[in-house]
Amino acid sequence: MASLKTRAATLSLGFNVVQTTAKFVGAYLTGSVSLLTEAAHSATDIFASALTLIAVKVAAAPPDEEHPYGHGKAESLASFAESLVLFGMVAYISYHAVRHLTEKVELVKVDTGLFILSAVAIVGFTISKLVASIGKKERSPALQAHATHLLSDVLTTLGVLAALLVAKLTGISAADAVFALILAAWLAHRAYRLLTESINQLIDRRMPDHEYLELQTLLNAEPRILGYHRLRTRVSGNTNYIDLHIEVPNSWTVVQAHDVADDLEVLIEERFNPAQCVIHVDPR
Q1: Pseudo-torsion of CA 193, 15, 73, 217, nearest 10°?
Q2: pTM of the model
Q3: Taking 90 as the threshold, does the pLDDT of residue 264 lie above it?
Q4: pLDDT score of 257
Q5: Does the N terminus or the C terminus of the chain have fewer Cβ atoms within 10 A?
Q6: Where are the CATH 3.30.70.1350 domain residues in the chain?
Q7: Contact at 8 Å (CB) between 212 and 233?
Q8: Residues spanned by CATH 1.20.1510.10 within the chain?
Q9: What average pLDDT score do residues 240-247 get?
Q10: Mean pLDDT for the stretch of residues 104-127
Q11: Of 156, 136, 154, which Cα lies nearest the Cα of 145?
Q12: What is the DSSP-derived secondary structure letter of residue 63?
């Protein structure tokens, strides 16, 4: 059976195909340039969904001879690529928004466009929350990044919906461009956060501060060791990698020392699951 992460990625890919088709149909029927722009935006999500699906499958592969630490960074690479796609969409939306401010767009069948956008927004919001929940549970940076992307789609969809509604009620055709610029700024902020998070994983930044402090507290509370040093951590995909040296009495036997090390490795791996911990013993 496919993993939970794989099924979530497949679901989001299927939804993106459906919503992109619906938006292109809506743009054709209404003549809305903003809706056409949103359809193009959604088309980029198909690429992002496919990338996420590939990433979670690659990351799930077990370690091998060439990749002894596994393939977890495939998810970080996918998150990095998705942030670049978001930046590209910011530029695309901003360019067209400025153009639309100087052009008057004549809309037809606005009610049809409003119905399509409403349906897409409701389904998209539901799926984004589901993917985010699975991403958090599975500690998948690729799924979490993609859930953010899906949520951004919902917001841009709502922006276009509001623009169409305002245009219908007031005749102000520039409303869609104003909404687009506001959403472009929000997208840029989200893209920046995704970019920094993925880069931190790719360059082996240590585990999050609150987890690192929790790890130090756990080690400081261990009564069987005299101390520890060379504590190093990093995160790859959803897995924490931890290694350190513990200091034990030099009167201990090798068996005693390694029993304590083994106990600590199990405790740490359970506390920060999924994790791999390696402990070296130094007599003192």
Answers
A1: 60
A2: 0.64
A3: yes
A4: 93
A5: N
A6: 209-283
A7: yes
A8: 4-202
A9: 94
A10: 86
A11: 136
A12: P
pLDDT in tens, 58-94: 877 887 888 777 777 787 888 888 888 888 878 887 8
pLDDT for 260 beyond 50: yes
9: CB partners within 8 A, 6+ apart? 49, 52, 53, 56, 131, 142, 143, 146
Joined together, the tokens standing for residue 231 give 């504590």
H or E segment at 228? Answer: strand 227-236
Residue 65 carries which DSSP code?
A: S
pLDDT at 37 over 80: no
The confidence score (pLDDT) of residue 1 equals 42
In angstroms, rounded to a whole number, what is the distance separating the alpha carbons of residues 40 and 37? 5
Which of 237, 236, 238, 248 lies closest to 280 in space, CA to CA? 248
- With a CB cutoff of 8 Å and minimum separation 6, the contacts of 126 are none
**Higher-confidence residue: 88 or 100?**
88
Domain 4-202 has CATH 1.20.1510.10: yes
Gap between the terminal Cα atoms of the chain: 50
For β-strands 227-236 and 239-248, DSSP reports them as antiparallel
**Average of per-residue pLDDT values in the chain:** 84
Residue 171 DSSP one-character state: -
Taking the C-alpha atoms of residue 61 and residue 251, their distance in angstroms, rounded to an integer, is 43
Place of tokens 């069948």: 109
Phi, psi of 204 (to 5 degrees): 60, 45
Cβ burial of 31 (10 Å; 0-12, 13-18, 19+) is middle
Cross-sheet strand order for the sheet of 239-248: 227-236, 239-248, 275-283
pLDDT at site 270? 94
Q: Which CATH class is domain 209-283?
A: alpha beta
